Amino acid sequence: MQCLNCNNSVKENFCPNCGQKTSTHRFSFSYIFDNGVLNGIFNVNKSFFFTIKELFTRPGHSIREYIQGKRIRHINAFSLLILLIAIEFLLDFGNVNSNEALPEMFKNSGDSLDQIFETYPQLTYLIVICVTTISSYLFFRRSKLNFAEHLIMNIYSWSGLIVLGLPLTLSFAFIDDKSLIRPLINIYALIGFGYAFWFFYQFFSGYRYKKIYLVLRVLLVLIISHILRFITLAALLEINKLTN
Which keywords accompany this UniProt record (predicted)? Predict the structure, then answer.
């Protein structure tokens, strides 16, 4: 058989050329759990920094290759996400200005859901990643990627966005004038949208979509995901009001 990472002929359990397991297969939910969702989270090495570098030099191409089998140099998607959320939490811990980053509809609403978002804003990543995965799965069916592969792709995409937002999170601790926070958030939102577009465009450019259709599909995924995010959060807010 051939190694998925380097195309070297392999007869053993590990490739003698690159060291990747020959048991590396296409992603599925059973494969993800069988091979450890958090594999590598306590072993941060050069794979962490390599993945971060790739997410800001060739994000879509690199993650497409990862999903197709070139995985030895990347850190596990779930491990990367949890590590970055932990870093963001540490930077944001005790920051009184972090509430300014919440959407207006969830600020000062006077109920426990608002308090949850204030205390654990990282929990919203779960909602964002899920709705973006659903959107990309529906609009890029021709790529023949399964739902688990779309999930992995979107975890890496949002990991890049978290890294992109770390300087913003850190800056909150040093800003005394709250009127400056909202403009900074708006600038970051535009930069984040541009990054997400770059990521998706690169990723799906390897699946023979015509450029104009690819651009339109990426825009639709990003816009619809944004809308679904707020619909989901609003629904949670209403459910919380009804149950209290």
Answer: Membrane, Transmembrane, Transmembrane helix
